[in-house]
Write a structure and sequence with these properties.
Number of helices: 2
Shape: flat
Structural class: alpha+beta
Mean pLDDT: 89
Radius of gyration: 14 Å
Distance between the termini: 12 Å
Order of helices and strands: EEHH
Strand content: 5-15%
Helix content: 10-25%
Amino acid sequence: MLNLRLARPGTLVDIRHVPELRAVRADSKSCSIGATLTHAEIEDGAIEDFSRGLLRYVARGIAYRA
């Protein structure tokens, strides 16, 4: 909504720099990607690649780059 300029909130809080929300964790049973990591960061390989390229490959076909 914000990207398309359809919503104009009175206050906007930037949480991109909260370290806990930028964490990437993976073990043998699950993986967790922080809420503030962007689609572009995944697609560009800017985060730890626990999937050996699969996540980056799939990200290329999910959405357009704004």
